[in-house]
Amino acid sequence: MAKTLIATIIGARPQFIKTPLVSKAIRKFAREIIIHTGQHYDAKMSDIFFRELKIPKPDYNLGVGSGPQGKQTGLMLGKIEQILIKEKPALVIIYGDTNSTIAGALAAAKLHIPVAHIEAGMRSYNRKMPEELNRIVSDHLSDLLFCSTKSALKILKGEGIIKGVYFVGDVMCDIQKLYAKRYTLDAVLKTLNLKPKTYLLATIHRQENTDIKENLENILSAFSEIEELIVWPIHPRASKLLKTHRLLEVAKAIPNLKMIEPVGYLEMLSLDANAKMILTDSGGVQKEAYLAKVPCVTLRNETEWTETVASGWNHLTGTDTAKIVRLAKNFPRPKNHPNFLGDGQAHQKIAKIIKKFLISR
Fold this sequence. Notes:
The chain is α/β, with parallel strands linked by helices. It is built from 17 helices and 13 strands. It folds into two domains: about 5-170 and about 340-360, Rossmann fold (3-Layer(aba) Sandwich); about 180-330, 3-Layer(aba) Sandwich (Rossmann fold), CATH 3.40.50.2000. About 45% of the residues lie in helices and about 15% in strands.
């Protein structure tokens, strides 16, 4: 008897990290095709994750690349629709909040194919962020909604979404726990000539920070005032916009700022774990910091991961230079570290629920 077909749609770094354990679990009872939209296409933002995390080779690579939000999403939507019509999967799996997420949700829903959204129910309540719009629409189109936190359950209930909603924990927690035992702490530190707890780690890529010159200037001003060594694996988009805003030379002139090429997931885990503090606008890196018990300063005015803030391990500063500097120099480290991201078995719970859902149809 032929196995049921599932289509998984991914396209960006956070989705590559979330995919492998879920993929492995569902392939025990179903066939899976992986559709890579090409949203992140740079080898250092895509290929390396497939190699390191042993993600099955994509069956389709759409090669969409970068571009304006509407154009990029539209290109993905059209190409995904063609594949779904051809392959006729029984279920489409989407992850997170990118344009790949919403394109997959729209294509599947319009073809009456059930959608499973992993990391559902997250909200920043800032609709100027494209990610927020992607989350809201994707959740309202999904049939199975897998929540990373219990607060996400409450958010969905408040929006009238109660059917097919499950708290399973966070799949990034699963994979970080798995690989934390395997990666070599010394390798990337040795390559970069770093010693544990002697540097701050920075990641910046969100549109609200990179597209607005003033915000990027404020962040760079904070970096220069902090004085301690800051290691910044620079996202291709951030690098491009530093040049556009004529700030690249300003960044290079900051003596304590070490800009490096993007790193793979295992190297990033090592940099996370050994950092004295993390400065970021990334949702995924906020979680990585929390799981590694490293203080985090989030360069945004809001976050979807409100539990990290409530626990005291994460502070929001926006791009306020003075706030960033103050926290970087004097972060009130909490005594407690509550677990709100699950038991490391989210992927198994997701697979079990999907299997039951498919059998019942």
